[in-house]
Design goal:
Layout (H helix, E strand, L loop, with lengths): L4 E6 L3 H12 L6 E6 L2 H13 L7 E4 L8 H14 L6 E6 L4 H7 L5 E6 L5 H14 L1
Parallel strand pairs: 1-2, 1-3, 3-4, 4-5
């Protein structure tokens, strides 16, 4: 059984956020609390606000690679130092992308906060629950 988790979805696509939100909600509303942001810049602002106001820190961040303004890798470059030096250490990033490029996967795993690389459209609810359970138990 999946333990209760705070989740942050960072994706510029409203449709992709909706699909992932629906899959996560099927794990149980009492299990997953979801916040959505449209790009890396908004996500960093949200995480800073969590720290400043002593709000719940997301345990899992689903992060798209390609976004306008601030994409996934730019987010990771700014987030990784915050992750290592603050309460954000409990946040685990799961890349959630339509890109299946080997270079993107390798680049993502170069950041210590990245725990998985998921391809949009290939993720079932059962797979999602299994991956979330694995990440949450490991942290």
């Amino acid at each position: 059984m999946l333990k209760q988790a705070q989740v942050l979805i960072v994706d510029d696509s409203e449709i992709d956020r909706y699909i992932l939100n629906r899959k996560l909600s099927r794990l149980g509303e009492d299990v997953v609390s979801i916040v959505e942001q449209e790009d890396g810049d908004e996500a960093l602002d949200y995480l800073s606000e969590c720290l400043e106001k002593n709000m719940e820190i997301p345990e899992v961040i689903f992060l798209d690679v390609n976004m306008p303004r601030m994409g996934g890798f730019e987010f990771l470059a700014k987030f990784n130092p915050m992750h290592q030096e603050s309460l954000l250490r409990k946040s685990n990033v799961m890349m959630y992308s339509s890109s299946d490029r080997k270079e993107d996967r390798q680049r993502a795993f170069g950041f210590s906060c990245v725990k998985d690389f998921l391809i949009k459209g290939e993720l079932s609810v059962d797979d999602l629950e299994q991956k979330m359970t694995h990440v949450l138990e490991a942290s």
